[in-house]
Specification:
This protein has one helix and nine strands, in the order βββββββββα. The chain has 147 residues and is of the alpha+beta class. A hairpin with a 3-residue loop joins strand 2 and strand 3. It binds zinc ion (2 copies). The site of one zinc ion has 8 residues, from loops.
Length: 147
């Protein structure tokens, strides 16, 4: 179930937040009363940058997925997601595009490896068939010669 996150401070029902983040934590700061909420983001492979990826607005609406224990952020102005910095397999901070490209490269490598393995298997199979054909020819010749 996804719920809009609303500021929990008494008398405040702010639902627009500023973001403040680093690698381990994401702080939500209520735009009305400045209350801070800490969200653990250690299991993410990206860092959230506190600006909208589309319009550079700094305020966001926050949605919590209770079951998956996850949060979603949407720009309060245009509904886009915040800018993110991804960490690639070497621990280097990269843009989403670079990370995507890297992921695709890894997948391509896997696919290439699989195709290679498949080719090796086919060669083995062909090799096996050759031996079988040679054996059959030999047996045939033997049978013919015997008669
Ligand atoms: Zn508040
Ligand atoms: Zn925006």
């Amino acid at each position: 179930m996804i719920r809009t996150f609303v500021c929990e401070k008494d008398g405040c029902s702010g639902n627009i937040f500023y973001l403040e983040g680093n690698e381990e934590n994401l702080n939500l700061i209520c735009s009305q009363c400045k209350s801070r909420y800490n969200i653990n983001v250690t299991n993410k492979d990206y860092i959230i940058i506190p600006n909208c990826s589309n319009c550079s607005s700094e305020t966001f609406k926050v949605y919590r997925d209770i079951e998956r224990d996850d949060i979603y952020l949407k720009c309060s102005q245009c509904g886009s997601v915040p800018e993110k910095l991804y960490i690639d397999s070497d621990g280097v901070q990269v843009s989403y595009e670079a990370k995507l490209l890297n992921d695709i490269k890894q997948i391509m490598n896997l696919v290439e490896q699989r195709i290679y393995n498949l080719e090796v298997n086919v060669k083995d199979l062909e090799g096996g068939q050759n031996i079988l054909e040679q054996s059959l020819a030999y047996i045939n010749r033997y049978l013919v010669e015997k008669n």
